[in-house]
Amino acid sequence: MAGTRYLLEVNPEIPPRLARLEELANNLWYSWDRPTRALFSRLHPALWRAVNHSPKAFLKRIDQKRLKEAAEDPIFLGTMNKVLSAYDTYAQMHTQITLPGKQPLVHTDQIAYFCAEFGFHESLPIYSGGLGILAGDHCKAASDLRLPFIAVGLLYRQGYFTQTIDRDGRQDAHYADNDFDDMPIAPVLRADGSDLRVSTHLPGRPVWIKVWQAQVGHATLYLLDTDLPENTEHDRNIAHRLYGGDRTTRIEQEIVLGMGGVKALAEMGIQPSVWHINEGHAAFLILERIRGFVTSGMPFTAALEIVACNTVFTTHTPVPAGHDHFDEGTVRRYFEECCAEMGCDVDGLLALGRIDNQRDFNMTALALRGSRYHNGVSRIHGDVSARICAELWPQVEPAENPMDYVTNGVHVPSFLATDWYETFDRHLGLGWMHRLTDHGCWQGIHRIPDQVFWSIRQSLKAQMLHLVRARVREQHTRNHGSEAHLDRLLRFADPASPTVLTIGFARRFATYKRATLLFKNLEWLRQILGDNERPVLFIFAGKAHPADEPGQAMMREIQAVASRPEFEGRILLLEGYDLHLSRRLVSGVDVWLNNPIYPLEASGTSGMKAAINGALNLSVLDGWWGEAYDGANGWGIKPVADALDPGQRDAEESRTLYELLQDSVVPLYYRNTSLGYSPDWVAMAKRSIATIMPRFNMERMLKEYVEKFYAPASTHWRKVAADDFAGMRQLADWKGKVRAAWSGIKLRRVDSPVARVRYGETVRIEIAVQLNGLRPDDLTVELVFNRPNERNPIRANRFRLQQHQALANGEHLYVRDLTPEQCGKLEYRVRAHPTHPLFTHPLEMGMMAWL
Ligand SMILES: *Cc1c(COP(=O)(O)O)cnc(C)c1O
User: Is there an atom of ligand 1 within 6 Å of 378 CB?
Assistant: First the structure.
């Protein structure tokens, strides 16, 4: 059409009585408070869906007449007041929840949490998958616990894509600009009312960053935006898409996030006592902090020491190739102009990111060198990470290097269906939401009558099937399918009779997650699914990264199998996986399937969401499930760790999967159908909730972070900051001296070893150590005891030797009188490692000398 196009949006006037709806719309509290969302939805359900459940967009578009009616409607007002009173109670609850740990946080402490993505709710689309949802949950739980907590991320213009799938299973990725006005965010303003802006350095130019904030209950999320007129066209697009663009975009995004984020906090006067790098993308924050200390006169080595001592780094990637890295040339180009301000040359800077003698700059290596608290996200992943990162502590065994683990959890209010609340109130007692980590409380689940439990499950399944039908219908119509065909597709997905055993598989289509493992043996699968007395419905959903061709091929394969006549209606592939669909699927399916390649699922969280809702997990014993599975709370697929090739591994693991489905899952679900429900199934589902809920929730996870990292790091920070970091300067110098001397440290046994003593007798151990110029108390000399052939000798007993006297030639004698407390054959070794009172981990230098 000819002519200029003008846009005009007409916003309603919110009646005074409903004014506080705007407050609710501007606090992400709604992302975990379902009654708040239900309040908006009931005002206008169709509009609520149309604005993708965004309260802010909703209030801008809703009809004036509808608002007027609501302002006069006593029922609506009553519901609103209930929601507001819960909101006010949450806001006002000042009672400091007692945090665990010997050295609790104090009110001046501040935790700053950096991540490249945050998944709170579908109305703030700046997440792609598990990492983002975990980060969102972390913030929500920090608010619940009233931690002094802020988060920093990027504000993407387009976020991640929305997905449609065509009739051949081909994914189409659609990108639409986010309208920041519709999102629950607001610009951070200076005192004079202008937007807060900071700049950071890119080659030959500054890039300007505008800072936005989102309220997450008590916590604040700051989001960085480069789409500003004062930036070049190129720089305006840096934060265009999450995980979009090329390597240049990626390094620029990470510079904006890490370095720009630090500057933004400084500009706002925020002085964190702990910095948490959640996955390597944000590790450049280390460099910006170093720059800060160096420009105020600190030498580089001391600055690195200071920065590291209150930095926490969490890795989520179990394969070295998955760690974010940049080629050397790129890093040179981006940092050669500014590294002088960091007190080092560009080669010194490159060395911070080097691992395995590769020339690439590895963000994980930088994060590890710039932090003293490191962790993986499950027990298995902690061990894997300790091995992958072993080179950082070359003389220390991976089993005792500083790589720790904290197993992930999920934010229960965000993912637990409200249908459970009343029943939990009745059978667990009011206040169960405040006893999430109390195992005893969750034993109460067994008091829920079986029929009640089953009927809640069926009702959740019906709600899910309702959504599934709508999605399939929409997808089918767009792909020009016929009505008759649609009926065949939906014959088992019937909300009116949700009796079909339903199994869900929804997550990113990354190849290691093996979405198509189920199709290894189609004839066997046909026998399992095709029994019309005991039908089974499989629901698949998920996105593949647009550049991930093998991931997209898996989707086409699912669609191809789903289209075969024998599987029609029994396998569905849904488009548009997001938090909304995820919440419905995890609460509605009977079984949650996960079959990644061991040990590549660092933790996984969707199975936890399913479990807390009473669904049963059928999963490879990897990630969190390796810890949660107890033999009777779901089903475990043992990974074939020593398979000769991937084909053999997949064949064996898929056989286990078929056998479990055929012999356990399907018969258990359909047992005793005459009762109208399966008592054995209910028993297993109850056990699953009782064992998983108290352990795999965010509150437990966050308390562990506080206890292991946040509180000790803050305490340490207060101590080292008190003397203007003089101690840390000395520590840096001391470490230099120790490194130079270490190869000359030699141990020699002075006493004659005895091989047999009587119980109660004492032996005196005497070790002479060549100190090579170090002082006697620069080292710990210790005996490490274990039983012969013990599998994990390192976790054995250790006994420290005392400094005794100087010997000739620079040697020093250390002694220990030892009275063994156990009888039997013992084995011991003697070793020495550097020691300093300002260490955060006893082996942080990665050095060890053995006799
Ligand atoms: C929980 C969740 C994930 C993570 O799923 P995993 O199976 O742990 O990979 C991804 N996307 C969405 C939308 C989720 O809610």
Answer: no
Q: Residue 454: enclosing H or E segment and its boundaries? A: helix 450-478
Could you tell me the distance, in angstroms and rounded to a whole number, from the CA of residue 511 to the centre of ligand 1? Answer: 15
In this structure, are residues 564 and 570 in contact, taking their beta carbons and an 8 Å threshold?
Answer: no
217 touches 90 (CB < 8 A)? yes
By 3-state DSSP, what share of the chain in percent is helix, strand and coil, each rounded to 5? 45, 20, 35
CA of 576 to the centre of ligand 1 (A): 13
pLDDT in tens, 49-80: 999 999 999 999 999 999 999 999 999 999 99
Atom of ligand 1 lying closest to residue 581 CA: 13
- Tell which atom from ligand 1 comes closest to the C-alpha of 542: 11
Nearest to 653 by CA among 642, 668, 669, 664: 642
DSSP single-letter state for residue 118 = B
- Separation of alpha carbons 808 and 184, rounded Å: 72
Amino acid identity of 505?
A: F
Residue nearest to atom 11 of ligand 1 (CA): 129
Q: Hey, what amino acid is at 364? A: T
- The structure tokens 């700053």 sit at 112
pLDDT tens figures, 731-777: 999 999 999 999 999 999 999 999 999 999 999 999 999 999 999 99
Domains of the chain in start order, with CATH, are 16-92 (no CATH), 111-325+371-409+706-720 (3.40.50.2000), 417-426+449-694 (3.40.50.2000), 741-850 (2.60.40)
Distance 605 CA to ligand 1 centre (A): 6
Neighbours of 606 (CB within 10 A): 23
Residues 14 and 80 sit within 8 Å (Cβ to Cβ): no
The response to whether residue 417 sits with its C-beta less than 6 Å from ligand 1 reads no
Neighbour tally for 549: CB within 10 Å: 10
| Beta strands at 149-154 and 111-114: parallel, antiparallel or unpaired | parallel
H or E element in which residue 522 lies? helix 522-529
pLDDT in tens, 472-509: 999 999 999 999 999 999 999 999 999 999 999 999 99
% of residues, the chain, pLDDT over 90: 91
Q: For residue 784, what are the β-bridge partners?
A: 798, 829
Return the sign of the alpha-carbon dihedral for residues 206, 207, 213, 218. Answer: negative
Provide the pLDDT for residue 788.
73
Enclosing H/E stretch for 235: helix 233-236
As a whole number of angstroms, the distance between CA 707 and CA 788 comes to 34
Q: Which atom of ligand 1 is nearest to the CA of 609?
A: 1
pTM of the model: 0.96
Of residues 761, 826, 765, the one with CA closest to residue 800: 765
List the residue whose alpha carbon is closest to atom 3 of ligand 1.
130
Q: What is the DSSP string of 513-558?
A: G-TTGGGS-HHHHHHHH--TTS-EEEEEE----TT-HHHHHHHHHH
Is the separation of the CB atoms in 41 and 230 below 8 Å? no
pLDDT, tens digit, for every residue of 649-659? 999 999 999 99
CA max distance for the chain: 103
Residue nearest (by alpha carbon) to ligand 1 atom 7: 606
Closest CA to 708 of 203, 255, 99: 99
Say how many Å lie between the first and final Cα of the chain, rounded.
Answer: 86
**Three-class HEC string of 178-201:** CCHHHCCCEECECCCCCECEEEEE
Instruction: Establish whether residue 595 lines the binding site of ligand 1, counting it when its CB lies within 6 angstroms of any ligand atom.
Output: no
On the CB side of 194, CA atoms within 13 Å amount to 4
Cβ of 582 below 6 Å from ligand 1: yes
CA distance 33 to 716: 36
Side chain identity at 571, as an amino acid letter?
Answer: I
Ligand 1 centroid to Cα of residue 678, in Å, is 29
Asked if 73 contacts 43 with a C-beta cutoff of 8 angstroms, the reply is no
CA-CA distance, 543 to 243, in Å (whole number)?
13
Q: Does residue 129 have its Cβ closer than 6 Å to ligand 1? A: yes
User: For residue 57, what are its two tokens?
Assistant: 């967009």
